[in-house]
Amino acid sequence: MALALSLGRRGMGRVWPNPAVGCVIVRDGRIVGRGNTADGGRPHAEPVALAQAGQQARGATAYVSLEPCAHHGQTPPCANALISAGVARVVIASTDPDPRVAGRGIAMLRAAGICVDTGVLEQQARLDHAGFFLRIGENRPYVTLKLAGTLDGRIATASGESQWITGPEARRAVHLMRARHDAVMVGAGTVRADDPALTVRGMGVFRQPVRVVVSRAMKIPSTAQLARTARDVPVWLCHGAKADVTDWTEKGAVSLRCDVRAGQVDPASAMAALAARGVTRVFCEGGGMLAASLLSADLVDALVVFSAGRVIGAEGTPALAAMGVDKLDAAPRFKLDQVQRVGGDIMHRWLRA
Predict the structure, then answer these.
(1) More confident residue, 329 or 161
(2) Residue 284: which of 336, 322, 240, 319 has the closest Cα?
(3) Does residue 17 have a cis peptide bond before it, meaning omega lies within 30 degrees of 0?
(4) Helices marked H in 180-334
(5) What is the rounded distance in angstroms from the CA atom of residue 233 to the CA atom of residue 209?
(6) Do residues 37 and 19 touch, judged by C-beta distance below 8 A?
(7) DSSP code at position 125
(8) Which residues pair with 33 in a beta bridge?
(9) Residues 125, 126, 132, 136, Cα dihedral to 10°
(10) Alpha carbons 249 and 129: distance in angstroms, whole number
């Protein structure tokens, strides 16, 4: 099952709106087939593994990181594929909350006389599939917020200089994180200040994440890199009803009208708009106002912080805008998941407490 989960993770950022599933088929103690959900979400992991196993699948055990689907979509049900292949046993990490499945896949397998075991490495599976589960259950994607700053939490000097606070190894790690998400998100201030491309570079990636800009008024020049390349790599705009996005949409950007609260795009509305289009995993790279609004709305599931060995002082730009927290009990809380040295910097990853 650990191998099935590892195979599934290879599809993160490339298979949405489907979940990134892995499947391993074992017969007589030997792996005879393995597969993961293909780019774009099809074919699913089970038929890929079954095709590799061929006739050796008969009487074998299939390990699957998510309950096999039981509905006819653009592909036949994976539960039927396992039944037709003659597997004797199916081990499942986690059930599927999708109403079209939700136990039906397991019921189909058992009705066909196949032994089914569930809950193997379930906690890891639920974390791997968290984006898919949240889209189904809460109408929002899984959100990873990335912050990169000095030891005193500054992201730029008083003059606005910020390139580069962290080293090349940390920046490469960020590109890898982008590749494992469906969408990369920034606010208008980041676009105006940095004119970022937000693409994955140096990784040999062919399926780029969607680039999302959150801005109430969209007062961003259409000469920005994102606008100029919107027909090459998708750009989606989460904006208020009064924003004029004509220059951007004429260049290929997609308009997503969102609710506005307290003078800015409501983050819950933006997440719902992304989920409605199938996005399951979002990697937010700031800036400070967008990051603070996501934290205040309790929409951050993972927080990744890169700390560089520099100190700027109070006159520097803080990583987060004001959040109105006046009591510690009201502050968003996270639990430490990982600490790692990345070049000359430290990366620490925190998960929702």
Answers:
(1) 329
(2) 319
(3) yes
(4) 188-194, 225-228, 246-249, 267-276, 288-296
(5) 8
(6) yes
(7) H
(8) 25
(9) 140
(10) 33
Nearest to 228, CA basis, from 259, 204, 196: 196
Backbone angles phi, psi at 202, to 5 degrees: 75, 15
> Are 127 and 89 contacting, i.e. CB atoms less than 8 angstroms apart?
no
Q: Is 237 exposed, middle or buried (0-12, 13-18, 19+ CB in 10 A)?
A: buried
| pLDDT tens per residue, range 46-93 | 999 999 999 999 999 999 999 999 877 667 899 999 999 999 999 999
For the record, the structure tokens of 72 come out as 């006819």
With contact defined as beta carbons under 8 Å apart, do 62 and 87 qualify? yes
**pLDDT surpasses 90 at 206:** no
User: Cβ(270)–Cβ(247) under 8 Å?
Assistant: no
- The helix-helix angle for 45-53 and 2-9 (nearest 10°) equals 120
Residues 248 and 222 sit within 8 Å (Cβ to Cβ)? yes
- 0.90 cut: is pTM over it? yes
Measured between alpha carbons, how far is 173 from 159 in angstroms, rounded to an integer? 27
Instruction: Write the DSSP symbol of residue 291.
Output: H
Q: Is 215 exposed, middle or buried (0-12, 13-18, 19+ CB in 10 A)?
A: buried
Residue with tokens 């196949």: 114
Closest among 137, 204, 212 to 175, alpha carbons compared: 204
Q: Are the beta carbons of 338 and 348 closer than 8 angstroms?
A: yes
Conformational region of residue 13, where left means phi above 0, alpha means psi within -120 to 50, and beta covers everything else:
left
Q: Which of 46, 67, 122, 161 is catalytic?
A: 46
46 is catalytic: yes
